[in-house]
């Protein structure tokens, strides 16, 4: 993570604004070519897939073909390892026990998931993702780490209504770097339904790209939200929600919110 990823200046900048783009191009001329290629692909995929999930599934397919680790946002294998470890360490510190049942939304190629699968009792990990390509990569991760006996569930989904899952089942629901790639309608759908699958004492942690300025998006891949927007959305679905200050100290560019059906001890 760049050292200043959460500096006041970065938190206020609007990456979609022309002035920002011009300034960025002047500071990083080497990144202009890759950005133009990404924008071209974005336009093509948008035309072919007007709905967001179809579009993002196509982005993942194109990225995963090159490298599943890069497709989930890790430029190097070391970074992939570190990002998985950060997710795991945080939930262990927050009380994740082997007997808990966990739903990992947007599980990717099990960057974090492989740690959770290893830690949890057999069959207690449930990963869902919209991308068949990344789920195939997830099975490879599972095999490479010898986790077959843990029998995790890995399921393809087309939406976040979670209607195929039972009531009150999961102690922990987790979505790492998923809402950073989601329009508000997708987050709204998830928050509308996640309460049903949580236990009374369970919680749902999700990360998001935080802005303290204007909410914006870059292409249709990266979305920046104000904390209040997401806290208000959660409240609208009768969920208790709080900003996780202790996540801010971790070496990760995103912020984290925790929601639950009942108020949780701080
Ligand atoms: C940046 S990757 C993060 C993967 C994993 N959570 C991790 O931290 O390694 C985002 C993942 O979320 C998935 N995804 C994006 N939108 C989704 C949605 N609406 N529902 C389920 N999965 C989604 C993508 O296919 C991708 O695998």
UniProtKB/TrEMBL annotation:
PANTHER family membership: CYCLOPROPANE-FATTY-ACYL-PHOSPHOLIPID SYNTHASE
Source taxon at top rank: Bacteria
GO molecular function: methyltransferase activity
Domain called Methyltransferase type: residue spans: 103-204
Similarity remark: Belongs to the CFA/CMAS family.
Name of the featured protein: Methyltransferase
Classification via InterPro entries: CFA/CMAS (IPR050723), Methyltransf_12 (IPR013217), SAM-dependent_MTases_sf (IPR029063)
SUPFAM superfamilies, per database record: S-adenosyl-L-methionine-dependent methyltransferases (SSF53335)
Organism: Streptomyces mutabilis
Record keywords, A-Z: Lipid metabolism, Methyltransferase, S-adenosyl-L-methionine, Transferase
GO biological process: lipid metabolic process; methylation
Pfam families in UniProt: Methyltransf_12
């Amino acid at each position: 993570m760049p050292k200043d990823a959460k500096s006041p200046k970065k938190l206020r900048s609007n990456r979609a604004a022309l002035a920002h783009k011009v300034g960025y191009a002047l500071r990083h001329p080497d990144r202009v070519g890759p950005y133009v290629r990404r924008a071209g692909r974005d336009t093509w995929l948008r035309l072919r897939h007007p709905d967001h999930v179809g579009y993002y599934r196509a982005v993942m397919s194109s990225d995963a073909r090159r490298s599943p680790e890069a497709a989930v946002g890790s430029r190097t294998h070391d970074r992939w390892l570190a990002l998985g470890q950060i997710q795991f360490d945080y939930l262990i510190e927050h009380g994740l026990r082997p007997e808990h049942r966990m739903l990992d939304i947007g599980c990717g190629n099990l960057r974090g998931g492989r740690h959770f699968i290893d830690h949890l009792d057999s069959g207690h990990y449930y990963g869902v993702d919209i991308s068949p390509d990344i789920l195939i990569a997830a099975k490879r991760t599972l095999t490479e780490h010898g986790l077959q006996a843990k029998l995790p569930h890995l399921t393809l989904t087309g939406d976040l209504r979670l209607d195929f899952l039972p009531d009150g089942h999961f102690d922990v629901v987790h979505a790492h770097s998923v809402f950073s790639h989601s329009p508000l309608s997708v987050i709204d759908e998830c928050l509308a339904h996640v309460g049903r699958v949580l236990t009374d004492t369970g919680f749902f942690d999700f990360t998001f790209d935080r802005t303290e300025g204007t909410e914006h998006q870059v292409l249709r891949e990266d979305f920046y939200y104000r904390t209040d927007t997401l806290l208000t959305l959660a409240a609208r679905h009768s969920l208790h929600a709080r900003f996780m200050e202790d996540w801010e100290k971790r070496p990760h560019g995103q912020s984290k919110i925790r929601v639950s059906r009942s108020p949780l001890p701080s």
